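Good day; I would like, with your permission, to put a structural problem before you. What I wish to show you is a protein chain and, alongside it, a tokenised description of its three-dimensional fold. Thank you for your consideration; the sequence and its tokens are set out here:
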Amino acid sequence: MRLFPRLLRLKIMFVGRHFVFCKCTALLSLRILLLVPAGLPVQTQGDSQSDKNIMDNITVRQGETVFLRCTQGEIVTHTAWLNRSSILYAGDEKWSVDPRVSLVTLNQEEFTIKIENVAMTDEGQYVCAVQTSRRPTTNVVHVHVQVPPKIINLSRDIVVNEGANVTVLCQANGKPQPSVSWKLISSSGDLATDDEYLEIPSITRHRAGTYECTAVNDIDTDTETIDITVNYAPTVSDGRDIGVTLGQRGVLECEADAVPEADFEWYKDDRRFINGFDGMEIVNTGSLSKLTFFNVSDGHYGNYTCVAINKLGSSNTSFVMYVVIEPTSATLFQGPRAVQDGSGSTLGVQLDICLLFIVFLPFLLKF
């Protein structure tokens, strides 16, 4: 029974010594932070023997190197650089585990450290604490970190039908906060908006193209682009009639503006042409379709229709291929009506002049 009280007393002694050790460790850490030598009372904020100097703020760009310089000027017993609640350097001893932090200069006049590849987390207040033989001094500097703009959220390329309402988004961050603007760069380059959101109500084909989002602050500029594709039904250009001499080559051309590109169909009256049929060929190249007759016969003359089709609709135009008779010695004396090329009046005048020249040629030769 006597053993238990002895064990209890030993346990109390051990706990008491452990408490005293922890208390001493805490006090030692506190004195190191405050750079107060053992035996010297801690100075309060209002104590006249403690100086607090506010240094000029430092502005640095993200990724650059910042130097924190502290002027000492008296016999120094302790010195340290602190960042908020952590110690970076205590004299020449490095407390920070950050490899970007290093000591540059430590002598009687200057205590300078540097932080490389500065990040946003490095922004804040830094304190250079100096304990001299006379009194403690603190020098405070605030580091501001500037960050170039970066577009972090951008709408993807979109495809819409003509008449739809379009809204796209471009978000950016940076420090200072960047301003965001949109513009259409694939055509006129007109400024679209000075906002993160670009809204285009009832979009038309003329507003389709590549849009550029630009984020700007005092540091730099960041740009990204998206494509807005506008689908619309085909619009076919007016057909141009042609005159072709029998046995010659004739070509009908049909051009359509459409997104997506149109498919073409050719008809003569109500009969649809199949490529390669009856000595003709259909060639489609993008927005243009050509119907070619390599050896025009009597059956090829007449009315033709070109139809352009895509998923949004269709459009058509008509052509006439008519006969042109080449002038011969016989047709010269039959007048201009023997030639059918769509410009009979001009050709008739030319034939009349030729006839008059032939009639009066013998009289001219006599003189």
